[in-house]
Structure formats: structure tokens, C-alpha cells
Amino acid sequence: MLLTQILHPECVKVPVENKDKEAVITELIDLLDARGLFTNRDAVLEAVLTRERTQSTGTGAGIAIPHGKCAAARELAMAIGIADEPIEFDSIDGKPVKIILLLVSPTNQTGLHIQALAAVSRLMLNSEFKTNLENASSAEEVYELFHSRESN
């Protein structure tokens, strides 16, 4: 799966404006909602926050991958936020995060949802790529990092 198929440049925010977990998730949901990707923004937000309350999606190493499935999502979608200051995310390693990768999909797209989560996870294992994301100064730079990575 190519992540640039589900990530649009206007769904990247550098830096995110908010400084706490739920507010940052809401900020990224709003980027997707502005593209008309939801039939009910509040239902999608609640699905992602409910998943987050079940178990933190802070995977460690400064990364969080909040995600959720909801019938109000029209298609699999992704938003990315890069924080200028680390955000407390209840990560498994106890450390705050700077990279937030949000995935949302319709309830009937479980396979694609899992493929996207796996693709994001694999990409975040590349320390050079992760460092470049953390140091990106614009949304355009973040999108170009993904685009050039997938073009190679």
C-alpha cells in the first residue's frame, strides 16, 4: 500500500497547534473533515478517541498512531501532525511524541485499515526517515518525504 494514496498534502500540519493528546487528535480529524471525508465528524472523532482510551496508540520512540474505524468515514484517510514540542501521549515507553499519524477508515475496510497501519509502522522503523519527519519545517516537506520515499 502506498500511503500517498490516502494522504493528501492539506492533511499534514507542521507544527500542530495543540499541546495535548485529545486536542491534537481533534485537530487532525478536522483536517480530514475539511476535505469532506466524513458524513459525521463527531462520530469519527468519538471512534478514534474511544480507541485511544482503550489503549494508547503512543507506540514509543516519539511516535503515535491514533486510529479508528467508523461508518461515518467515507474512505480510508490519513492525517499527519508534527509537534514542535513533544506531547504527552501515554506512550508505551512513557515518552512524549512529536510525530502523530492518524488513520481513519470505514468499518467495512478492515483489511485496508490493517495494511495502512502496517505500512506506517514499517516506515517509522527507518530512523533516518523518522528524524527527517521530526525535523520537517513545513507540511510540504513532510508530504514530499512520503512521496519521495514511496517513489524509490
Q: What does this entry look like structurally?
A:
This protein has 152 residues and is an alpha/beta fold. 42% of the residues lie in helices and 23% in strands. The chain contains five helices and six strands. Strands 1, 2, 3, 4, 5 and 6 form a six-stranded mixed beta sheet that branches. Helix 1 runs antiparallel to helix 2. The longest helix has 15 residues. The model has no long low-confidence stretch (mean pLDDT 96).
The CATH topology is given as: Mannitol-specific EII, Chain A
N-to-C CA distance = 14 Å
Overall pLDDT: 96
Q: What is the architecture at the second tier of CATH?
A: 3-Layer(aba) Sandwich
Q: Report on the biggest sheet.
A: 6 strands, mixed
Oligomer state equals single chain
- Overall structural class, as computed from helix and strand content, comes to alpha/beta
Question: Beta fraction of the residues?
Answer: 15-25%
Low-confidence stretches: none
CATH homologous superfamily, by name?
A: Mannitol-specific EII, Chain A
Tell the overall outline: globular
SSE arrangement, N to C: EHHEEEEEHHH
DSSP helix count? 5
Helicity range: 40-55%
Number of strands: 6
CATH class: Alpha Beta
Radius of gyration: 14 Å
Number of domains: 1
